[in-house]
Amino acid sequence: MLAPKKIKFRKRFKGRRGGTAYRGSTLAYGDYGLQATGRGWVTARQIEAARVALTRRIKRGGRVWIRIFPDKPLSKKPAETRMGKGKGNPEQWVAVVKPGRIIFEMEGVNPEVAREAMRLAARKLAIETQYCERPGVEHAGQ
User: Fold this and answer.
1) Of 31, 32, 36, 30, which is closest to residue 102 (Cα–Cα)?
2) If DSSP codes are grouped into helix, strand and coil, which group holds residue 75?
3) d(CA 129, CA 37)
4) Quick check: helix, strand or coil at residue 50?
5) What is the pLDDT of residue 139?
6) Are residues 59 and 120 in contact, defined by beta-carbon separation less than 8 angstroms?
7) Nearest residue to 24 (alpha-carbon basis) of 15, 35, 32
8) Is residue 70 within 8 Å of residue 48, measured between CB atoms?
9) Is residue 65 within 8 Å of 48, Cβ to Cβ?
10) Which of the listed residues 10, 56, 89, 110 has the most CB atoms within 10 Å of its CB?
11) Taking Cα atoms as reference points, which of 16, 15, 71 lies closest to residue 47?
12) What is the pLDDT of residue 136?
């Protein structure tokens, strides 16, 4: 699963997820993409599950890019623990996703296969997404 090798601080604030993504909001590598229309946290497990579903559907043909990385630690206190005694230990890693952000990109497959693969990947994520294509490549690929 994805996780940073080294971080400056072990624990971080939750933060607010307002605004829209102005970075990473256009297709940069592939011809087909999965774009976030909702906002939220996407965990490393969700990213991995979506990646596996995507690559299985395209049968390892074509090429896939993951455009988000889980670099935010989420801490959690143990069950049945009294209040106080500080913040809990980091339990999982999440990527903060805002509307407009491209999550996955793909090239080298048929548009129908790409749409179906992106649909399967979108089912693994906890945010709303939409399928997008690069203009002028509706019938490119094999």
Assistant:
1) 36
2) strand
3) 5
4) helix
5) 61
6) no
7) 35
8) no
9) no
10) 110
11) 71
12) 79
Q: How many CB atoms lie within 10 A of CB 123?
A: 11
Give the global pTM: 0.91
User: DSSP for 44-85?
Assistant: HHHHHHHHHHHHHHTTT-SEEEE-----EEEEEPPTT--S-S
Superfamily of domain 32-76+90-133 in the CATH hierarchy: Ribosomal protein L16/L10 (3.90.1170.10)
CB atoms within 10 A of CB 23: 9
Residue 99: closest CA among 137, 129, 61, 57: 129
- In the chain, the amino acid numbered 119 is R
pLDDT in 10s for each residue of the chain, 142 residues: 899 999 999 999 999 989 999 999 999 999 999 999 999 999 999 999 999 999 999 997 899 999 999 999 999 999 999 999 999 999 999 999 999 999 999 999 999 999 999 999 999 999 999 999 998 776 654 5
Sorted by where each begins, the domain ranges of the chain are 32-76+90-133
- In the block, tokens 């229309």 appear at 37
The answer to whether the CB of 126 falls within 8 A of the CB of 25 is: no
